[in-house]
């Protein structure tokens, strides 16, 4: 069976969890992201709206008499999967209940549709696609979501191997797929710590001049 090569020039990274975003990467550099001025933009998330018509703010302030503080709470803490389902912000709960709860089913469908739409938009921005990488709590642990997101994207060269996807394999695309579809574990805290060390020119796991491992570097590996 032919093995997929490492990520090539055009990569889309859907990081899907309670917070969710996608990035379009060309030649190792991000050229676009689904998030906007705040983390509330982009795809719907656990409790955040995702992209919203600006007119909604005026409408709700007029019809529901929301204060700016109440509107901010609404779009960040009471919307997204929780707002649509009216029961939970946890994708595991929604997948479990979707067969018997129409609102849970609608929340899952909305999430998958919006992620799919962003993948299509970023493929257009990149001029094609070589690699798609799912990460985050949902991306790493919800094969059903990965399958539904990829369904209908065959025109981009995406073909999922059901058996691989069901076991959260590292590569879930078929050998025939023109696009390598991967599932990758991420640790955001470690990456943030490493980035801080790099910006501050601190050692990352090497001995400092006094012969002891730098405390900040050690923390970056914990």
How do the strands and helices of this protein lay out in sequence?
Elements: E1 10-16, E2 20-26, E3 29-33, H1 55-63, H2 68-77, H3 80-85, H4 91-97, H5 102-126, E4 131-134, H6 136-141, H7 143-150, H8 162-166, E5 180-183, H9 188-199, H10 215-220
Parallel strand pairs: 1-4, 4-5
Antiparallel strand pairs: 1-2, 2-3
Helix pairs in contact: 4-5, 5-7
Please describe what this structure looks like.
The chain has 222 residues and is of the alpha/beta class. It folds into two domains: 10-186, Nucleotidyltransferase, domain 5; 190-220, no CATH class. It is built from ten helices and five strands. The chain has helices spanning 55-63, 68-77, 80-85, 91-97, 102-126, 136-141, 143-150, 162-166, 188-199, 215-220; strands at 10-16, 20-26, 29-33, 131-134, 180-183. It has a five-stranded mixed sheet. Strand 2 (20-26) and strand 3 (29-33) form a beta hairpin. Helix 5 (102-126) crosses helix 7. The radius of gyration is 20 Å and the shape is globular. 32% of the residues are buried.
Poorly predicted regions: 207-222
Quaternary structure: single chain
* Rg, nearest Å: 20 Å
- Gap between N and C termini, in Å? 37 Å
The strand line-up of the biggest sheet is: 3-2-1-4-5
- What's the number of extended β-strand segments? 5
CATH class of the largest domain: Alpha Beta
The CATH H-level superfamily of the largest domain is: ATPase, nucleotide binding domain
Q: Quick check: average pLDDT?
A: 89
As for the number of domains, it is 2
Beta-strand proportion: 5-15%
**Helix share bin:** 40-55%
What's the shape? globular
Q: Based on the structure given, which CATH architecture of the largest domain is correct?
A: 2-Layer Sandwich
What is the third-level CATH name, the topology of the largest domain?
Nucleotidyltransferase, domain 5
The ordered H/E elements are EEEHHHHHEHHHEHH
Indicate the structural class.
alpha/beta
């Amino acid at each position: 069976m032919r093995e997929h090569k490492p990520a090539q020039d055009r990569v889309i990274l859907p990081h899907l969890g309670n917070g969710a975003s996608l990035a379009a990467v060309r030649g190792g550099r991000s050229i676009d992201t689904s998030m906007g001025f705040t983390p509330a933009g982009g795809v719907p998330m656990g409790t955040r709206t995702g992209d919203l018509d600006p007119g909604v703010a005026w409408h709700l302030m007029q019809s529901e008499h929301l204060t700016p503080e109440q509107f901010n709470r609404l779009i960040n803490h009471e919307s997204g999967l929780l707002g649509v389902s009216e029961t939970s912000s946890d994708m595991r709960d929604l997948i479990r209940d979707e067969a018997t709860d129409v609102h849970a089913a609608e929340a899952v469908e909305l999430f998958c549709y919006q992620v799919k739409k962003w993948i299509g938009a970023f493929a257009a921005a990149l001029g094609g696609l070589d690699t798609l990488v799912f990460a985050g709590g949902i991306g790493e642990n919800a094969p059903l979501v990965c399958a539904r997101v990829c369904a209908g994207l065959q025109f981009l060269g995406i073909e999922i191997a059901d058996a691989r996807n069901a076991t959260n394999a590292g590569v879930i695309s078929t050998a025939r797929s023109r696009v390598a579809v991967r599932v990758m574990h991420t640790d955001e805290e470690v990456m943030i710590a490493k980035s801080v060390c790099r910006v501050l020119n601190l050692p990352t796991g090497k001995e400092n001049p006094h012969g002891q491992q730098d405390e900040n570097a050690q923390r970056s590996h914990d």
